[in-house]
Amino acid sequence: xxxxxxxxxxxxxxxxxxxxxxxxxxxxxxxxxxxxxxxxxxxxxxxxxxxxxxxxxxxxxxxxxxxxxxxxxxxxxxxxxxxxxxxxxxxxxxxxxxxxxxxxxxxxxxxxxxxxxxxxxxxxxxxxxx
Length: 130
Hints:
- The radius of gyration is 32 Å and the shape is elongated.
- It has 2 helices and 10 strands; from the N terminus they run H-H-E-E-E-E-E-E-E-E-E-E.
- It is α+β, with helices and mostly antiparallel strands.
- It has a 5-stranded antiparallel sheet, with no helix packed on it. A 5-stranded antiparallel sheet has the order 3-4-5-6-7, with no helix packed on it.
C-alpha cells in the first residue's frame, strides 16, 4: 500500500503547483499631459500679460513701435505701462526695469501670430507677425 501512496502524492503535488501564468493585463494608454497654455494659445489677440504688465492691443490706447534693431516696444497711453523686448539680446524691461530671463519659449506660431512665454516670470507675449 505504501508503494501506491507515493505516486498518488507526487501526482497530487504536481497538480497543485502550476507554472501557468495569468495573462498580463494590457497597460492603460498614457494620459496626455494637459497643455498649461491651451487657453493662451486659443486667443490670438495681441497682448502682454503677466506680473507687472497687462496690455491688450484691442482695448485701445496701446502704442506699438517696431524698431530697426528688431526690438518691440509697447506703451499703454492710459496707464503709462511700457514693455520693451529686444530678441537679439533677450533683454526685456517693464516700466524701465530689466526682467531677468532664463528662456523665451515660442509656444505657438502661425503665419500671422506668434505666442511667446518669458521664463521664469511667465509673461505671455502674443503679437502679430505681419
